[in-house]
Structures are given as structure tokens and as C-alpha cells.
Amino acid sequence: MNDRGSGSEGRAPGREDDRTRALVVGPYLTRGGAADLATRDPQARLAEAAGLAEAIDLDIAEPILVSLSQVRPSTFLGKGKVEEIADAVKNAEATLVTMDCQLSPVQQRNLEKAWGAKVIDRTGLILEIFGRRARTKEGALQVELAHLEYQKSRLVRSWTHLERQRGGFGFLGGPGETQIETDRRLIEERMARIERDLEQVKRTRGLHRKNRREVPYPVVALVGYTNAGKSTLFNRLTKAGVLAEDMLFATLDPTLRQIRLPHGAKVLLSDTVGFISDLPTMLITAFRATLEEVMLADVVLHVRDVSHEDWEAQAEDVEAILAELGLSGEAGARILEVWNKIDALDPERLAALAVAAESAQGRERPSLVSALTGEGLEALLERIEQRLAEGRVELEIALDPADGEGFAWLHSHAEVLGRETLADGSARLVVRVAPERFDTVTRRFPQAEVFQGAAERRHAGR
């Protein structure tokens, strides 16, 4: 953990740095606690908390790990630990303390009084990151909506000014309306306006999605724990320039690019926001529209960082959110696991994972890749192609070479997998269509026949 704060530890008190000096505190219940959260390694959790703070460019002092047997209602921490951290705040000259937990408004207020510094909890920190990173109009609106919901929950007489009474001038509030009631009403009015704006944005997104559905390209969505390497994989496959840094939540707004699979078929690849443990509920709700790309994708790639010590726990967090989005049970069959960052493994660990992957049955078998070096990506693309082919029908269609309109129609409404010129001069096309498009294509081309070589090709590619 020491390297997290090493860049600033040696600075003199009068250092020239306009970043906010912050202390990161990881208060985790020990095993057997009242609300046991010890499924993760505490040091890994603390490292993640420091990473969240670094994501908004805070100047971080040495992170502090606190083991708890129980949570105190008034301050979350015990009295002795509160006093100990107060000294640490003073020594580090910190003006901000991030607590890697969910604090009640009362706990937050009491800790701020005890430490003489602003205190934000995990939810507040994640909201701050999302607020800085959102680039699209929809992303910005969703973040603001989530932030207002969070602020509304804080309006429980947490600050003395909220207890003042307002006069009854009518335009600011009725007779005797308190400041807290006014603040809550103003927040609710702003939330209602944002929700109306979001509905308009969603309608626009729906039209864009409908237009994309008219194009026969299937959608492949990348999901995974934040910093699992999704954007690096996205860039490697698409040759795009999406921000891909060793930073939590480097990508927020969804990005779509077209790629070509080994046999020539085109797909749309979507990069999405990374998931994280204890993701604020209001953000899951607010970003549901953004994650529609995942819910409607033909194939979902669950990218996992196999070099991370908590990769199993991270996978459970992602799977829980996917289940909440409706990707479980039969719908979960669309998910393909991608074990990324194999370049960071030692030979023994890599060999063990390769054996584990090979022993998995059929659809459950993960793909081992390195988005950084490109290792394993060709095999991954073949797996994606196989998955897409499972639910689609391949047709063989003979066309007159002069039928330009027919060629154009097929390229617009189906995946053209191959073309061959026959001895009589006619062209033979092999196309792939979604089941719901089968009748449309066969009505347009009555000569179409189910391609007999499709099953053999899929079997050979397994």
C-alpha cells in the first residue's frame, strides 16, 4: 500500500500543489461481524478505495486500514479510532477524508466535526468521479439525477442552516416552510426536469437503436469490473482511440465501433462503464438506459482481470449487476467470459488457468487473452462468431450478376459471409440472418436455400 501515497509523502508542508490533500480510510468489518463484508481481501479493498480517490486527482496521504467488530451508529468508527484518525488528518494537513463505506448523514456530520475536514463516503466519491467523467448529454443528466437523489437523502438536518424558517412570500415557499423543506422541494423539481429531459434523450437513443436494427449487424457488448481492461480490448479490436488508462472508471459513456470477424461478418462492438462493488443503487437505476446496449446485445463479453487478487469477488459483483439488468438464467447464455491480462501472469499461474479453462464445458469455457499484446484475440473473435451463428440461419442464394438491386438489398439486410462465381456466370452468395428476418429474406429471394455447410463449419470451429 505504501506506493499509493509515495508520490507525496516526502513533500514539505509548504509544497506547491493545488490538489486537495486527502486521507483514505478503509473501515472494514472483520469476519463474523454483524454485517460481514469480508469476502474480499482488506488490502485489495483499500487499494481500490485509494484508486477511486486518485481517479479525481486527489493528493493522497497514506491510506489507513481499520478493522471493525461492529459499526457505531453515531460515527461508524469507535471513539479511539476517531481520535487516532483526527491526529492523522492534522499531521497530513488533509482537508478531505474519504471513507470506503456508506455513511448516514449523522455519521458524516459527526466525523466532519471530529476531524475538522470534509468527509465523503464511497457513494459520494463514485458520484464525484462519474460527474467529472460523463461526456454525453445523457451521461451528464444521469449523473446529476443520481447526485440529486443522494443529496436529497442527506437533507436530514445535517447542517444547521437547514433548520431556519422561511417567510411566506409565496414564490419561495409557503408560510412557515423550513429551509430543509425548501431545499428538498427545489431538488425534487430539478429531478423532475431532468427525468423529462432524459425521457427525450431515451427516445432519441431508441430511434438510433431502431435504425441500427435495420442494419443486420449484431451487437457485442463489453462488460466487466472497472479497470479490467475493457477499453484496451476495445481499442485492440477496433483500432479506436478510446481512453484506456490504468485508472478506475476511465470509460463512462458507451462507445460503439464496427469490427469484422474472421469470416468477414461485421458486428458492432460496444464499450461500457465498468462495474464496481457496492455501486450506488441510484447509479444502477440512473445508468439503466446507458446499459440497455448490454441488455440488448447479441453477445456479452464479461472481461475479467485474472491478474487481480480479488478477481473472483469482482466477477461476483459484475454477475450480480448483470442479473439485476435481466442477464441471468436463459438470457445469461449470451455471456462469454474473457480472462484478460494473461501477460501479467507468471508461467505457473498461466498454466493453471489454461487447464481450468480447458476443463470448462462448452459454452462455459472462457477465452484467455491479453488485450495489451493481442494474444488470444483471434481465437476470441472465432468464439464470438460461433456464438452469433448459433441463433442465426445461413442461406445460399443464387443471383444474376446484373441484379445490382438484389446484391445491395442483401448487404443491407443480411450478413454476407461469402460470394462465389459459378460456371454459368451466376453468383452464389452465403448470407446469415437472424431468425426474425428469415421470412423477409426468403420472400424477397424465393430461390434461397438453407446452407448445408453451415453446421459443418461451426463444428470445425469449435
From TrEMBL:
Its main location: cytoplasm. It is found in: Cytoplasm. Its cofactor is Mg(2+). Residues 12-21 have a biased composition (Basic and acidic residues). One of its GO terms (molecular function) is ribosome binding. Monomer. Associates with the 50S ribosomal subunit. This is GTPase HflX.
